[in-house]
Structure formats: C-alpha cells, structure tokens
C-alpha cells in the first residue's frame, strides 16, 4: 500500500509510523514489537485511509482469529464478537485507554455500532487471556482503539461523504440507501491542541428479517446514527500533558419480530455520552498515566406483543465510572515494572413490562491493584510476568496471573524470528442484570479461563512476514440461564462442566514489489461445545496494488466454513440446532487522488452476489456498490 493518496503532512506521519515498530496493548506503554511476547495485529492509519467507506467492524472482521457475526445484516443488528472460540463478553474494548461497556446489558458488552471509523487513528487487536492488565472481560482478547490526534498545524480540515446501495441477494435495487458523511477540524496552537469530529450515517433498503419464506416482500428497516467527538489538550512541557475528551454516540433503528417474521412497528434507540480527563507525566526513570471517565448510556425499544395486542416499551439506563492510575518504572534498559490501580463502578436502572431493576439495588464496584515485570534482554530473551487482584463488591476477591516468555532467535536488519509462549488466567465478572434482575443470582461466581499458547513471528528482508500461534483455552464456571425442570423457575447459575477451545491462527504477508502486497490468513477453531456461529475454518486473502502514483486498488477474498448455531422456535417453544452452510465473498475497492487534497473512492462488496445467511432467519447483504470522496486540507 502507498501513502500517495494523502496530504504531505499525513504522508510524513505515515512514514514515521512505518519506522516506529511499537505496540501499546501488551503493556499499556510503548514497547518495541520485537520485545513483545504476543502477536498483536495492528490496523494502522494507512490501512484505514486505504479502505475508505469501510466501518470499524468491516476492518476487524478481516483479521485472523476474529469473527464478527451480524456485520453483513441490516445496520443496527446485534453483533456477535468472537475471539478464540469465546463469546462477546470475553473481549474487552478500550478507547484511548478507557474500558467501554454497557452496564445495562445481560453480558455488558460494548456495541461497536457506537464508534465511527472517521474518529479512529489506529486499532490494535491483542488475542489471548489479558485479564492481568485489563481486568474483567479480557479473557480471549482486547480491542484497543486509538482515536485521532490533533494536527501539528494550527488548523486542518477533513470531510468525507459516500453513497451506496443497500440490498439483499434477492431483493435487488440500485437506489442509494446507504449514506455517510463526516467532518472534522483539528490543530495545534502553541501548547494547546484540539480535535472535533462529527459523523452521520443513514441506511435503509433491507428488512432485518429474511422474507425468503414469505409470498410478499417485508418492509425495510431503517438505521440512523450520529457520532460526535471532542478532544482538548494542553502540553505544559515535554514531560506533562493534560487532555479532556467527550464522545457522543446515538442511533435509531427498526427491527423485526423474529426469524423470518416481519414487523412494521418495532423500533429501538441507543444513546451514549462519555466524557473524562487524561494526564501523562514523564520523569527520569518512567512514565505515569492517569485516566478518569464517566459514561451515561440509555437504550430502549418498542415491540409489538401478541399476548396483549399492544406495544410494549423497554427502557435501560446505565452509568459507569472508570478511574485508573498506571505507572511504568525503568530500573534500567532491560527491566521495567508496571503497577496500576483500577476502579470501576456500574449501575443499572431497567423498566420493562415484566419487572424493573432499581439503580439503588443494581450496582457494584471493583477495585483492582495489578503489577507486571517486563524483562527485555539484549541476549534476545523477553519475559512478561504479571498478577492482578480483583476486589468485587458482590463476590469478593479473585486473583489472576500471566507468564509470557519469548525469544528472538534471529534479530538483524534483514531477518527476524521470534518464538513465544504464554500461560495466563482470566475472569469475567457477572453483569448487573445477571446479579440483580428477576432472574439474578447474588451467589454467582465469575467465569474463569485458563489459556496456553505458543508460536512464532518472523520477517525476512521487509518483503515477507509470517506468524502462527496455537492456543488452548479452558473455561470454568460459565454463567448460564437455567430453568428448573420441576418448578420451572429460571435463574442464572454457574455451569459445572468445563468447556474448551483450541485452534491455530496463521498469517502471511508478502511484498514482492514496492507497489504490490499480498495478505493471507487462516484460522482454525475447534470447540467442545460449538453452538455460536464460530466456523472451524476461515480463510482470508487480500491483494493491494498501486498501479499508478495516485491510484490504489484492493481485492479481498473471504471463505467462511460451516457453523453450528441455535435459535428459538416459537412454534415448539424449544431451542433448535442448525448447521449454517459455508460461504465465500469477494470485495473490490479503489481510490484515486484527483487533485491535491481530494480523493475519490469506490467499492463493490459481495461481487458475485453470494446467497447465504450470516444469522439464521435474518437478511444478508448481496452485491452492493459505494461511491465517495475524501477531502483533506
């Protein structure tokens, strides 16, 4: 890929980024990639710029070991996020170092529909157990989103807009039903820096539920989102900086009754406002980072009830507090100590026709001290050892730890070869709903995970990169919804059986020519209980070429194997198991800089109009195209 499609300032930033081989997710501080004991995949600014019109989920879904279910359905659909055979609640999402979640949800998972790609600088994906550093929820991985930075110039302006079709494989139309706009302003004046961005997205044209079993087409379900971001910073000197941030996200959506079942009245909305402050202080032997944020989330939906022949309304209101102080102390060039204190507080106010949850009751907090020792030896040996004590206001204390060695067998300018391994434990705390709802259980224990992995990471002469990791994960005390066969009373409980998942994630990157690049990946996942849309095999191939100075072309091929899933059958009142057939998709994208600062782009998704289902009973996007422009000044 090339940087010729961006401004001179952005080009300089990209060149610096390319030379700066560092990662953050492994230690929360900058660490040379060669010294990390993990294989961390990074979606860079360059990757985002070369994929205009894509969403955050589009880019994540093309990463080895990541499976996002629901991305190919109507916008606003619930997204299932799976790392290493786990579930959505086992992946932690961080935005600029702050954990984000939904305290009102059954699983407390963050909705990736709430983040807009135009606000993002880069994304790091850390796979594997990471509760020692990130706490509850980081048992199969972490998505670490870094928001855009202010420009070094006094003022910089960016605008992008796109329009595309939005139809299924069978209900074809050429109307522009997918519309997106984003505008941003950023800059630096003396020691003060600022960034403001606002994005709006609208789509229609697809029914949420599939109408393939219906004689008449279902009505379409619309989606409208708004995202705003504001960052204000002040650099007091070379050692101390302070930043205020505020983020507003909101979307409205229509949805249907159930699988293959239409509705003209069901609708929902979600709104989140998050604000806080961050400080960074560098001293002679280390660095201290402090963060504080408050989040207020409200979501609700109206749904038709066949029992009462009326519209039922549901309202969920949640508040969360995040505060953390983390310090890195360098004893010398080889030994570093990371210590931190993390505090989180959650509450949930729920109002439904079937009962309420009161905020005064449905709340809990955690207070976690943690520490890691990092050794980066000049002899090629690296070691990351850490521990965390989770102190939960409801279930008491829980201890987790990790051991992560790696060794650079070869490390010179032309060839690098690193072997790595790890053993780590992790936990997932019960949600406010699982603890305090009508089905809640205050005796719930946290889910526990144990993960072992080993593999290698290598590169040769800057034209070949290859990595492969084997993992094995055991899961105990899984929180499940249980119905007593005698009394028919239902409640959440901890499962006694131990489940496991194992697999191999392999990536290969080739750059035979300066203007030609191949990215290949394969993921194999095998679970002892495989009922949640996770394919055993997933293969992705991506080719990018810059045939001319200002032109970029990309082709992406994805093959997803058979998946096992369960769905609720309202006719029999039972859970039914089904096999989802494999499918393959081919996407094209292209961009060209017409004049300085102005780039036009186009994309074609599902080029061969593959007919498949991503989620059983719901519509899937067919062949669609998108046109757009991007202006930077």
- Principal-axes geometry comes out as globular
Radius of gyration: 24 Å
CATH C-level name: Mainly Beta
CATH homology superfamily: TonB-dependent receptor, beta-barrel domain
Notes on the protein architecture:
By secondary structure, the protein is mostly beta strands. The chain has one domain (8-632): TonB-dependent receptor, beta-barrel domain (Maltoporin, Chain A, Beta Barrel), CATH 2.40.170.20. It is 5% helix and 57% strand. It is globular, with a radius of gyration of 24 Å. The two termini are 22 Å apart. Residues 1-20 have low confidence and may be disordered.
Keywords:
633 residues; mainly beta; Maltoporin, Chain A; 22-stranded antiparallel barrel; five-stranded mixed sheet; 5% helix; globular
The gist of it:
This protein has 633 residues and is mainly beta.
Helix and strand topology:
Blueprint: H1 8-19, E1 22-23, E2 31-32, E3 40-43, H2 45-49, H3 56-60, E4 66-69, E5 80-83, E6 91-95, E7 98-100, E8 120-127, H4 131-134, E9 141-147, E10 156-164, E11 178-189, E12 192-203, E13 223-235, E14 240-254, E15 267-283, E16 286-305, E17 310-330, E18 335-352, E19 355-357, E20 363-376, E21 381-392, E22 396-411, E23 415-428, H5 432-436, E24 447-460, E25 464-476, E26 479-483, E27 490-494, E28 499-513, E29 516-527, E30 537-545, E31 551-560, E32 563-569, E33 574-580, E34 583-595, E35 598-605, E36 624-632
Parallel strand pairs: 6-9
Antiparallel strand pairs: 1-2, 3-8, 4-5, 6-7, 8-9, 10-11, 10-36, 11-12, 12-13, 13-14, 14-15, 15-16, 16-17, 17-18, 18-19, 18-20, 20-21, 21-22, 22-23, 23-24, 24-25, 25-28, 26-27, 28-29, 29-30, 30-31, 31-34, 32-33, 34-35, 35-36
């Amino acid at each position: 890929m090339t940087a010729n499609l961006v401004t001179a300032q952005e080009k300089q930033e990209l060149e610096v980024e390319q030379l700066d081989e560092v990662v953050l997710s492994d230690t929360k501080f900058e660490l040379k990639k060669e010294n990390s004991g993990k294989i961390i995949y990074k979606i860079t600014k360059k990757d985002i710029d070369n994929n205009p019109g894509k969403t955050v989920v589009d880019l994540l879904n093309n990463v080895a070991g990541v499976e996002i279910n629901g991305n190919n359905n109507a916008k606003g659909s619930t997204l299932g996020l799976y790392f290493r055979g786990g579930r959505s609640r086992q992946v932690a999402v961080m935005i600029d170092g702050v954990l984000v979640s939904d305290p009102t949800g059954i699983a407390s998972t963050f909705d990736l529909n709430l983040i807009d790609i135009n606000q993002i600088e880069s994304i790091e994906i850390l796979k594997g157990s990471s509760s020692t550093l990130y706490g509850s929820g980081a048992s199969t991985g972490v998505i670490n989103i870094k928001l855009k930075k202010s420009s070094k110039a006094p003022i910089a302006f960016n605008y992008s807009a796109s329009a595309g079709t939005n139809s299924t494989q069978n209900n074809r139309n050429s109307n522009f039903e997918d519309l997106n706009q984003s505008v941003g302003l950023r800059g630096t004046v003396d020691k003060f820096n600022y960034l403001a961005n606002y994005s709006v997205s609208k789509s229609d044209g697809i029914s949420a539920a599939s109408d393939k079993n219906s004689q008449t087409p279902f009505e379409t379900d619309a989606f409208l989102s708004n995202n705003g971001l504001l960052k204000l910073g002040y650099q007091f000197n070379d050692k101390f900086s302070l930043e205020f941030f505020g983020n507003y996200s909101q979307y409205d959506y229509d949805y249907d009754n159930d699988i293959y079942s239409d509705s003209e009245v069901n609708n929902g909305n979600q709104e989140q406002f998050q604000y806080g402050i961050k400080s960074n202080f560098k001293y002679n032997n280390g660095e201290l980072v402090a963060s504080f944020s408050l989040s207020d989330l409200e979501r609700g939906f109206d749904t038709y009830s066949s029992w009462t022949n009326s519209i039922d309304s549901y309202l969920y209101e949640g508040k969360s507090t995040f505060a953390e102080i983390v310090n890195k102390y360098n004893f010398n060039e080889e030994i570093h100590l990371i210590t931190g204190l993390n505090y989180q507080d959650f509450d949930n106010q729920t109002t439904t026709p079937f009962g309420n949850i009161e905020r005064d009751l449905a709340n809990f907090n955690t207070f976690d001290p943690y520490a890691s020792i990092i050794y980066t030896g000049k002899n090629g040996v690296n070691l990351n050892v850490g521990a965390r004590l989770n102190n939960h206001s409801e279930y008491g204390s829980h201890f987790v730890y990790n051991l992560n060695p790696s060794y650079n067998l070869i490390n010179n300018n032309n060839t690098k070869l690193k072997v790595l391994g790890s053993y780590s434990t992790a936990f997932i705390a019960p949600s406010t709903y699982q603890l305090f709802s009508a089905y809640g259980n205050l005796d719930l224990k946290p889910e526990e995970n144990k993960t072992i992995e080993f593999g290698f990471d290598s590169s040769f002469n800057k034209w070949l990169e290859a990595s492969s990791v084997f993992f094995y994960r055991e899961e105990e005390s899984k929180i499940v919804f249980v119905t007593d066969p005698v009394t028919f009373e239902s409640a959440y409980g901890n499962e006694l059986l131990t489940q496991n998942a194992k697999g191999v994630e392999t990536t290969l990157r080739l750059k035979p020519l300066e203007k030609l690049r191949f990215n290949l990946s394969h993921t194999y996942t095998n679970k002892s209980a495989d009922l949640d849309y996770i394919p055993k095999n997933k293969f992705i191939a991506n080719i990018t070429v810059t045939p001319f100075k200002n032109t970029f072309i990309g082709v992406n091929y994805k093959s997803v194997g058979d998946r096992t899933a369960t769905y609720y059958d309202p006719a029999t009142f039972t859970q039914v198991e089904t096999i989802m057939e494999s499918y393959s998709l081919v996407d094209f994208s292209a961009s060209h800089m017409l004049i300085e600062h102005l780039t036009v782009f186009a994309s074609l998704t599902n080029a061969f109009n593959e007919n498949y289902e991503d989620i059983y009973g719901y519509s899937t996007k067919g062949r669609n195209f998108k046109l757009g422009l991007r202006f930077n000044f």
